[in-house]
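hey so i finally got around to running both of the ones u sent me last week. sorry it took forever, my laptop kept dying halfway thru and i had to restart like 3 times lol. anyway pasting them below in the order u listed, first the sequence line then the structure token line for each. didnt double check formatting much so if smth looks off just lmk and ill redo it

first one:
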Amino acid sequence: MNIQWFQHSDNWQDVKNAAMNTIGKAAGKYPNDTWKLRLLRAEHSPIRKLVFSWRWEDLPYWVSVHFVRHKIGIEHFVKTQRSDRTGIPRDQLPQGALVTHECTANAQAMITISRKRLCSAAAPETRQAWQLVKDEVAKCEPALAHCMVRECVYRGFCPEMFSCGYTKTEAYAREREAYLSDEL
């Protein structure tokens, strides 16, 4: 699997203007990295103005299904398996059939999806697919990538019914400390 393409336009000025409007002030100047990180961590509504689009290629159908379960702040466009379009009886296609899966999502959705899909409880293939997206985000929006963490790092504890034990490791302590840091 791979990311065929990834798109994002820098519209932080729009985000800043919306944030200022919510507190009854006029538009502000373009935000610095510290302001971006603080707004993303607070998950205030203007972050939903940050939009990303990408397409996975050769994603196993069953992994695609994991992502389709996310529906708030994200749109999915998955290659069909309809028999009249593929010429193959749908019931003969295995769960491992490869599909293209295109998405458009806002920053809030990216944070929320990361909490579930970077977790060790997620299938390794699903974590890998989401990590590819996070890696692309890191290239253009490092503050957002900084906030795209697994559930235990986000919450400070593991809420899963059957924990993997990661919260008891040195790696977790380092990851949690980095997440809480203002350093990108």
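and the second one:
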Amino acid sequence: MATSGTNRSGGDLALEGEMERLRPGLTGYCYRMLGSGFEAEDATQETLLRAWRRSDTLADRAALKSWLFSIATNVCLDQIDARKRRARPVDLADPGTAVTPVGAPLPETTWILPIASGQVADPDGDPADQAARSETLRLAFVAALQHLPARQRVVLVLREVLRWSAKEVADVLETSVASVNSALQRARATLDELDLEDAEAPTRPSTEDEQRLLDQYLKAFAEYDIDRIVALLRYDVVFDMPPLPLWIVGPEEVGTFMLGQGAACRGSKLIATSANGLPAYAGYKPDPESGAWLPWSVTILETEGPGSASAPTITGVHNFLAPFMPNLFSSFGLPERLEDSDPVIGTALL
């Protein structure tokens, strides 16, 4: 967090350090509330700036966390009041086929957008706790939260994701414990009533199996071996491309699309990364005019453990198209272009 002035006291520096340590948790909270990595980053920065300006009003340093989350809640509630609910392609239309026109892009504000895993990962956090919370970063879960009224969304995220007590949430919302408990019951009932089966997290492969699956996919994609790609996909895999509305289902449709309308991705360079707690990669398409490779998509791969099958599979391929989202690659700390000398497959420095 940038602050003005060079004559800050030791207390100021300590407070700034404590605020920065809470940044990943704040960003994750704002992301679940808003459904956009861009908006979550802006909301977190606005929270920290407001907090810094009002730091002389914080009487009890031990209350810093709840104080910051109270500010973040107000920032998020203001943003939610100003716009409509975000969604995924599967929420807005029936599936198409590999030959269905992709359609005109819809506004960025239509969609649940990704967030770099590094923005919400606490380097000092418990790995098991972070792994459990990463499931609540899945696109389907974040989309499900968007169906809740704003204050119910606050209650559900703080109570069931971040495990705050009802009293702590009541203090943030300046309401009663009874009101918080009632809001939580209504939020749970709303989610139960919705047809949100895919919001339930599937069995994740082990970290090693998931990394192996990502490596296999990236190598097959780099060689544009569609048969190998299709072999990694579950029978009901969902393939989509926000902000384009088209989405398709099934390995055969995906393979046909990649050899047809999607064939322009052949020859891409790839950078492995992580988004929403899941394996992901950035794709750069060759640009004949510049001779470089330019940003094309950040793709999240949703995976499922072996179960009764012999190997883990990919259940979702979610391609967020950078030409329609100018800040997408920078928000992931990704380069804005690759050159001929760069490797075909690399790793993001996140």
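quick thing i noticed on the 2nd:
The chain has 15 helices and seven strands.
anyway thats it, ttyl
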